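Mods, move this if it's the wrong board.
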Amino acid sequence: MKTLEQATEQLLDRAAALVERESVPLDALLGRVLADPIVSAVDVPSFENSQVDGYALRLSDLPDSGGLPVSQRIAAGAPAGPLEPNTVARIFTGAPVPAGADAVAMQEDCEIDPDGQVLVRAPLKQGENIRPRGGDLRAGQTALPPGRRLSAADIGLIASLGHGHATVVRRLRVAVFSSGNELRQPGSPLDAGQIYDSNRPMVMSLVRGLGAEVIDMGCLPDRLDVTAGALAEASERADVILTCGGVSVGEEDHIKAAVQQEGALALWKIAIKPGKPFAFGKVGGADFLGMPGNPVSAWVTFVFLVRPFLLKRSGVLLVDPRFHVCRAAFERSQPDPRQEFLRASLDAQGQVVPHARQNSQILSSIAESEGLVEVPMETPVRRGDLLRFYPFGSLLS
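Not the wrong board. Structure tokens:
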């Protein structure tokens, strides 16, 4: 069997990043992958400005006793004249610091005497409460590199540089379908021996969370001709095809035969639990990835194998899942030969507590957990051991 590390490395070696790009306005950039670097054309901020409401002054003008008169008032967005000698300027947060001033005293540290003189009651140092020009970014500096999935903070940074658009990689197109005569769609009644199709809505949501475009291929009956035709159609519309189940040796599992008929298929056994079976191949010009049919197995293989593959195909540079190192609040005396991922949450002390039910068919155990805790292969767990905990938030974006 392949280790998860070996399987991920082989998948990423075969993940060719998209090259098509498009210019997108600010309000549509969230989650998109930057194609060109964002470079600052100006210093940010472009002028020295006050960090507080207070009084701009020249330190050498401060008297040993008494105060200084106010010579001007400077609001944010207004111009500032040079600071007159032996005076202070009333200034507000974000307003430009007048030429000649080298510090700003907070208004809370000042008093106004009966003659309107400003008395500074706290010590000041050079540059205090002044935001320097270029303190955030310098002209010509790269603000955001290509290959980055844009967050709300990134979009704010782009806007602060005056850009109304950014060049991003086009969205990856991912076709998702389920297969099986036993599946019925939510909202319809169940007959004997039938279950609801939960994997396809789950996988489509996971794909959308990565910023890709989803093509819903529906649920296919257990017929080779229909499955082969659907795969061929999907390969013309999508960059990647995803399935759950249907690649075993059973007589009613036709996806394996259909992929082999329309392209090429490699069946892998991954040394992880849950999620041992995994399929990778090509159908026409599209990549094919086949996940296990059990919902928790599908979830685990998606986040650790499919997710990095789709992100790299989308042009993202950093695709490794993020984790925290936490102490175990549980024990497992029977080591497993496979690398195991348990659904778990953190207790009030930040320790990992596994969900009570770990069967790979129990989808509610994912909904009731906060993430996955990794138990290395052939490793017993003692209370207090340090383990990797992968929050779902880091695995779904």
